[in-house]
Design brief:
By secondary structure, this protein is an alpha/beta fold. It has one domain (2-257): Alkaline Phosphatase, subunit A. Helix content is 36%, strand content 17%. Strands 4-3-5-1-6-7-2-8 form an 8-stranded mixed sheet, sandwiched between helices. Helix 6 (118-134) runs antiparallel to helix 7 (147-155), helix 6 runs parallel beside helix 8 and helix 7 packs antiparallel against helix 8. It starts with a strand and ends in a 19-residue tail after the last helix. Bound molecules: zinc ion. Zinc ion binds at residues 8-9, 44, 149, 191-192.
Length: 259
């Protein structure tokens, strides 16, 4: 099974500054970059559309947090998995993400709204996902953790409250890792960073993201020096599941991470 965890708004230097034993262990045991890049505009829905469709925003044309269907459709990761008879599940707390896949392609979709409580909202989504992860029900699971972004907007990126939230997310991912069945592979990265109380610009603070791949067949304790961006995630996730990338996808499989 393959798990992709999106950690909204988590900057790579936050992982370095905060106390993050889970991220540290995953980097030690896996391959990672602390200088992967987002896409412009560096905001959540355009970024996630690029993650799931492996094309830049100028191609999928979702340029704000309001979804519009593509005029020239590009197959998304979830549709490609469905075509290959893989079972996929999605767990998220920000409703616009329901448009990342087309109807009838997911085996399970769980949305519970952000509750203005950063300690509760991600925990609730994680707890929902844990039961299904433990039972190994799906070939692919998407888990979205959104509270670092919420706290960033409220208190500022790299503020004490933001770093504390990154530590909370680290502990939640620790719970997930304890639950995963043997042979699992995990990709974790954020969609964008942030500065002051915003993001969306081409500044490095907004564009640089951590990108961590872990599990069977992934090289251990390796810092990836090659350029990695959001478009590379869908081809790499498909590769882990033994499925070729869609022809229209523009990213690449991060082979350097694989043994
Ligand atoms: Zn975001």
């Amino acid at each position: 099974m393959v798990l992709y965890i999106s950690i909204d708004g988590v900057r790579p230097d936050a992982i370095e500054q905060a106390h993050t034993p889970t991220f540290d262990a995953l980097m030690n045991e896996g391959s990672y970059s602390l200088a992967a890049r987002s896409v412009m505009p560096s905001i959540t829905l355009p970024c996630h559309m690029s993650i799931f469709h492996s094309v830049p925003p100028e191609r999928h044309n979702v340029l704000t947090n309001v979804f519009t269907p593509m005029v020239r459709p590009v197959p998304g990761l979830i549709e490609v998995l469905a075509q290959a008879d893989k079972r996929a599940a999605s767990f998220f707390s920000w409703e616009p993400l329901r448009d990342l896949s087309r109807p009838s392609s997911l085996s399970l979709s769980h949305f519970s709204a952000y509750e203005n409580d950063p300690d509760y909202s991600d925990l609730r989504v994680v707890n929902k996902a844990l039961t299904h992860l433990e039972a190994n029900e799906f070939d692919f699971t998407f888990l979205y953790l959104g509270t670092a972004d919420e706290v960033g907007h409220l208190s500022g990126w790299m503020s004490q409250a933001y770093l504390k939230q990154v530590e909370h997310i680290d502990s939640l991912i620790g719970k997930v890792m304890e639950t995963l069945p043997a042979g699992a592979r995990v990709l974790i990265h954020s969609d964008h960073g942030g500065h002051e109380r915003m993001h969306g610009t081409a500044k490095d603070e907004d564009m640089l993201i951590p990108w961590i791949l872990w599990g069977e067949g992934v090289k251990q304790n390796q810092e990836l020096k090659q350029d990695i961006n959001l478009l590379d995630s869908a081809p790499t996730l498909c590769h882990l599941l033994g499925i070729p990338a869609a022809k229209l996808w523009e990213g690449r499989v991060i082979q350097e991470a694989l043994s």
